[in-house]
Each structure stands twice: as C-alpha cells, then as structure tokens.
C-alpha cells in the first residue's frame, strides 16, 4: 500500500499524506538552514532487525534530501558516547524480558545538552521505551513536533510479558494509546497496523508509509562472481547442486512461527529440498529439537549469526522464500527476498497483502495441503518460477522505493510543523 491509500471496504483512510499530496520541497527552515531531524531508537547496530533496517534507510534518504540528521540510541554497555552523529546512551541488558533488549540509564546529561544546543526541528521516535522518554522530553523542551513510527504489533509478543493473552492485549492497547497520544503524528508501515491503532482508539494523524528498500543492495546475482559465491554458500552447508533451497531470514524467536515451517517441510516430504534458516535467536534450540523429532534434520540448515552486510548474499543462494510469521508489521524480509528475485511462499497475513500477489509474486497458504500444493507448483515448474521471479522484482520496484519512503516521511514532518503555532523555545533546566 502506498502512503495515502484507503483500506478497501473499511471506510478507513489515513490522515495527512494522501494520493494528492505534493512531495516536499528541499527541506529548510525559515532561517534557510537544513531541516534538523533527530531519530531516536532503542535498536541500532550491531543488532539486526526490521526496526534497525528501517531507521538506517530513513536516515540515508533524509540525508540525501538535504536534512541534517542525528540518531539517539542505546549503547551496548554502560558507557555513553557520540560517534559520527550517533549518540549512544549507556544501558543495561534486559534480555530476561526480550533477547538483546536493553534499558537506557538515567544519565547522559552531556548528550542532552548537546542535542538541545543543536536544536532539532523535528524529533522522530522509533521505539516506545527508553529512547521514547528522551524523544518526548526533547520535543517538549524545544516545542517541536514529535513524530512516531509504530513498528511492532505487541499483541503478538504477549508470551514474553503476560501469562494471559487477553490481559496482555488490554495492556498493549492502553500502553499504545497513552504513548501515541503525546505525539503530533504517527507513521505505520501497513494498513494492517493502521487498523489496529484505530481499534485502540488512537486519535493522532495516521500516515501509512511502507519502509523503502535499497534495491541496488538487495537484488539477484548479476556477475559470475556473485553466482559463484551463491554456489559456495550452498556447498558450505553441504547442499547438493540439484537440491532446491527454501530460504528464511529471521530472528529465531517463538513469534516467528518457524515451527510451522518445519512441520510443513516434513509434510511436503520432498527429498530434493533443503530449508536454510538464516539468523540466530533464543528459540534455536527448540527448532533444532523439533527438526529432529520430525526426522528432517538432514534437510534443515541453521546458519547462525550473519553480518548485516552479508545478508544479500544469502538471499541470492535461495530458490523460494518461505515464512509463517503472523507478527509482521510489513514483512521487510519478504520484500528483501522479492527484491532479490525470490518467489514467496508464506502464511496468509494482511500485512503481506501488498507484497504477495497471488500467483504472480508467490502464494499465501492457510493449511498444510495448500503449502504442499504451492511448493510443488513452484519447484516443478522452472519456467513458472522464473516468471514469478521477474514479477517479484517488478513489484519490489513499484512498492518499496527508498527515495519515495524518504520523501513521504519528510512530508509528514512538514505537515506536523505546519500544524504548530510558532512557540517560544523553553529550555528546561539541565543538571550540570
């Protein structure tokens, strides 16, 4: 869904950016200096996930549009530091709640002073916890808009924090409504998330803006060297040349529903296929045990941790991208796979409606029988699979343009600034 598209059949339409919205002029303030944007996020390198990918893409595109952009995030340790426009606040591990999560320390006064002196024109928060507190304080102190991107459907993560799914949902609804009520605008990646927030009674302007993708980085193998590299990756995992690779790129966590992918693999019973799970996570041991119980250990490969820069290489070695997650807000890995020329085979989910065009870029399944039928159709028809591969590339170019992503977000900033009356900057006292 492009920014501004209405949700068919619901009467819901995002407010703010619409199909007739003109793209913003090169960003500048009344003083003529570049627009200053502070992005705040609890997740940043070296962590690899959809939030990090989205924020990095946005930062790059805003810089290309002429903005002055800085990032406020959490350090991987207690030390607070500043490196090339990225402020890292000291933090402690919260991995007992969620793998690799961290909680910011109530320090960093020097960082706060530096940011207030820099004086951003817009604060754009990308997380609802530690750095959101900072984002809200900075925006309130400087009387500038606070824009927020809602990345995560927390209802799908209730198993981490609540024994009751019903109670967990009520907590999420109340928490989300309270956090978002303090913002000037909310960006969501898909209509699915917009509907969810509308159901939570969030009354802030909502903008549906899919995250863009670097289509030069995520693309099929072009050179002899890239084809050789793909073959080498396969050989390194013991995959024979005649075998087909079903690929999944994901954090190995319970909410990704990879158990179901393993079960589908076993039921499909195709000896000529190998499932490659790219990624690491706390659920790996359970998945390895499940593969053993299903008798498919010889046809399931776990790569472990993969450096972010190497992920495109792994997409290029696959034949079909598979997934069964129902916790996606946009499904960035599905889009990356599509941009790499892989047909998609995934569990039906509204968040993938604009990605998976049935019979064109891939298939969505709802039962083991459908999975097997669609998999057989993909693997037994090389010409049809090649057609889907080309269609996937075309679809990616249409729906996932990174430049369009940056321009649409910039338009939200300018609208949010336009809705605010000129205010006198009020700096709260900052302890020495």
Automatic annotation (TrEMBL):
Any GO BP: carbohydrate derivative biosynthetic process
A Pfam entry, by short name: Glyco_transf_4
Region (Disordered), start-end ranges: 1-32
Keywords, comma-separated and alphabetical: Glycosyltransferase, Transferase
Domain named Glycosyl transferase family: residues: 232-392
Organismal lineage: Bacteria, Bacillati, Actinomycetota, Actinomycetes, Micrococcales
Protein known as: D-inositol 3-phosphate glycosyltransferase
Cross-referenced InterPro entries: Glyco_trans_1, Glyco_trans_4-like_N, Glycosyltransferase_grp1
GO MF: hexosyltransferase activity
Domain Glycosyltransferase subfamily 4-like N-terminal: 48-217
């Amino acid at each position: 869904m492009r920014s501004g598209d209405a949700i068919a059949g619901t009467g819901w339409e995002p407010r703010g950016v619409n199909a007739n919205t003109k793209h913003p002029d090169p960003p500048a303030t009344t003083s003529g200096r570049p627009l200053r944007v502070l992005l705040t996020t609890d997740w940043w390198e070296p962590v690899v996930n959809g939030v990090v990918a989205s924020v990095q893409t946005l930062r790059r595109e805003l810089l290309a549009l002429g903005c002055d952009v800085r990032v406020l995030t959490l350090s991987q340790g207690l030390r607070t530091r500043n490196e090339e426009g990225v402020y890292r606040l000291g933090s402690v591990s919260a991995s007992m709640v969620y793998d690799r999560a961290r909680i910011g320390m109530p320090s960093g006064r020097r960082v706060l002073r530096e940011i207030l002196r820099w004086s951003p024109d817009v604060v754009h928060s990308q997380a609802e916890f530690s750095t959101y507190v900072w984002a809200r304080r900075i925006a309130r102190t400087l009387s500038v808009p606070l824009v927020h991107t809602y990345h995560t459907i927390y209802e799908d993560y209730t198993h981490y924090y609540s024994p009751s799914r019903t109670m967990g949902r009520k907590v999420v609804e109340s928490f989300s409504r309270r956090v978002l009520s303090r913002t000037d605008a909310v960006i969501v990646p898909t209509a699915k998330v917009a509907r969810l927030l509308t159901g939570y009674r969030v009354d802030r302007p909502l903008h549906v803006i899919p995250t863009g993708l670097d289509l030069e980085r995520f693309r099929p193998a072009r050179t002899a060297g890239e084809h050789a590299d793909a073959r080498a990756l396969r050989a390194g995992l013991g995959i024979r040349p005649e075998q087909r690779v079903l690929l999944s790129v994901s954090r190995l966590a319970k909410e990704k529903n990879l158990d179901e992918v393993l079960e589908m693999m076993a039921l499909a019973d195709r000896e000529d296929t190998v499932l490659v799970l790219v990624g690491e996570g706390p659920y790996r041991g359970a998945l390895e045990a499940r593969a053993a119980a299903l008798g498919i250990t010889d046809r399931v490969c776990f790569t472990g941790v993969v450096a972010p820069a190497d992920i495109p290489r792994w997409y290029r070695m696959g034949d079909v991208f598979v997934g069964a997650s129902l916790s996606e807000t946009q499904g960035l890995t599905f889009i990356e796979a599509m941009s790499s020329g892989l047909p998609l085979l995934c569990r039906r989910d509204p968040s993938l409606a604009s990605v998976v065009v049935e019979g064109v870029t891939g298939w969505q399944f709802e039962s083991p029988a459908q999975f097997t039928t669609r998999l057989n159709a993909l693997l037994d028809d090389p010409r049809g699979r090649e057609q889907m591969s080309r269609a996937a590339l075309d679809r990616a170019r249409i729906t996932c343009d990174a430049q369009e992503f940056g321009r649409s977000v910039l338009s939200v900033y300018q609208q949010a600034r336009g809705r605010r009356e000129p205010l006198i900057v009020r700096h709260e006292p900052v302890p020495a």
